[in-house]
Amino acid sequence: xxxxxxxxxxxxxxxxxxxxxxxxxxxxxxxxxxxxxxxxxxxxxxxxxxxxxxxxxxxxxxxxxxxxxxxxxxxxxxxxxxxxxxxxxxxxxxxxxx
Amino acid sequence: xxxxxxxxxxxxxxxxxxxxxxxxxxxxxxxxxxxxxxxxxxxxxxxxxxxxxxxxxxxxxxxxxxxxxxxxxxxxxxxxxxxxxxxxxxxxxxxxxxxxxxxxxxxxxxxxxxxxxxxxxxxxxxxxxxxxxxxxxxxxxxxxxxxxxxxxxxxxxxxxxxxxxxxxxxxxxxxxxxxxxxxxxxxxxxxxxxxxxxxxxxxxxxxxxxxxxxxxxxxxxxxxxxxxxxxxxxxxxxxxxxxxxxxxxxxxxxxxxxxxxxxxxxxxxxxxxxxxxxxxxxxxxxxxxxxxxxxxxxxxxxxxxxxxxxxxxxxxxxxxxxxxxxxxxxxxxxxxxxxxxxxxxxxxxxxxxxxxxxxxxxxxxxxxxxxxxxxxxxxxxxxxxxxxxxxxxxxxxxxxxxxxxxxxxxxxxxxxxxxxxxxxxxxxxxxxxxxxxxxxxxxxxxxxxxxxxxxxxxxxxxxxxxxxxxxxxxxxxxxxxxxxxxxx
Lengths: 98, 488
What we know:
The complex is a heterodimer. Chain A has helices spanning 4-13, 20-37, 72-75, and strands at 82-83, 86-87. By secondary structure, chain A is mainly alpha-helical. Chain A has a domain at 4-41. By secondary structure, chain B is an alpha/beta fold. Helices cover 37% and strands 13% of the residues of chain B. Chain B is built from 15 helices and eleven strands. In chain B, strand 7 (258-262), helix 8 (272-287) and strand 8 (291-295) form a beta-alpha-beta unit. The longest helix of chain B is centred in the C-terminal third of the chain and has 22 residues, at 370-391. The two termini of chain B are 25 Å apart. The mean pLDDT of chain B is 96. At the A-B interface, helix 1 and helix 2 of A face helix 9, helix 10, helix 11, helix 12 and helix 13 of B. Chain A: Residues 16-43 form a coiled coil. Chain A: Its EC number is 6.3.5.-.
């Protein structure tokens, strides 16, 4: 059974933050969903292969020829913050560490 | 233009005869949308300027007599990219996102001179069964404005059902086209996985997602699917096989076709009224000359369980791209790079999306992968084998699309497990990648019921053939919604 500590760990892996009340509710809901999915344990799957995709395609490659992409200035229109044609983000390290 | 009493053929005839121009058609469509939107709320964005410009271009040359889509305004689910027109996936995360290219399906419709009229509401990132998880508005069911339109393509379905547009595009990962089609009394197809390019469709669960079509009639549905189908080198999972002429299958002849009814699809979870309509539908198919037998798809009962593990796992991976860096929402509170990720995602995503990211991340995490993701993938194989066994002897599987008719707005949002069970009859076709369509099968207490028709991979023709014959024999597609209920 999934507990609050595990849910907090999964939240960190997911890069999501929750309030304590949200975490409580989420633990309860995830526990309910996991209880539902535990029914799968009734199914005998010995020797059954895993399906991850339905069309049995191999890797598909194209000729290694340069193709025109989208202009950078156009792509940057959706950037939350940018300067001089580059994406701008907060400092990764503060000045003392650098 | 009130599309409740028109189809592609009837409007096309007016355009060809010169009784109507594409510009007039767009103007009349915008007026119809403006009139009905206060009740239905099916659109997030209306592209008035873009639609009028496109119509002017169509009017600049004669209408091709063999192109039923020329000048036709089409609604597009708001998780399909439209060049220069805001595309949100109904999420705060993408509230201001303006794509810089069209999804292949949109590009293909435009190449046929169809007109992108606006973007339809959906559950946030297509995660939901009622369109209530949209961050922006709640779409209502035109048959009863106090009921949900279904989901996740609820806006696309309600827009067609309300007569705002003649057709629309949606996406279907676990039933997101067929369930709203059933709830809204219209036709909705999820084609075979690989029939239609997913390029420019905002990914939810990549091994299950397919783009498909809503319309009032089977013939219109086949026409639109024809236009968007085919291989696309930008989507390596799209199938490089010829697309047949779907409309050629619409001759009404189903004599000798072998149809299976899965007993698991008619089990106790199906409401008695729905079951009765489907039994009547099955009798109709028999009377049209098909043979109908009962079969078993024993592993279908695990469909919901495997779906929530597989779809959530794929979603947790797909949605990791929303990090507040390159596009999409960035939290104004973010002081550090880690903040950009965590605060942007926590503030930008709604509850249902976060719940599924959490579920998927858990199912993929070290120590739980074998018990959940791997196990679900194995049971998925068994679901596929069930279908293979039945399709060795039968052309199609039919049954109800949904266990109930449309439910009340607000009823199920607090209880995810009950909400998830709503998809039990539609998920198996996604698991196996099969084409499946919902066609109107009459009313129960004034609300529509859908007959689901599932075909062999890449045999949309058989699905359309039976859907068309059934539609012509019953006339259920002529029912129109009452727009009753709702706030005064």
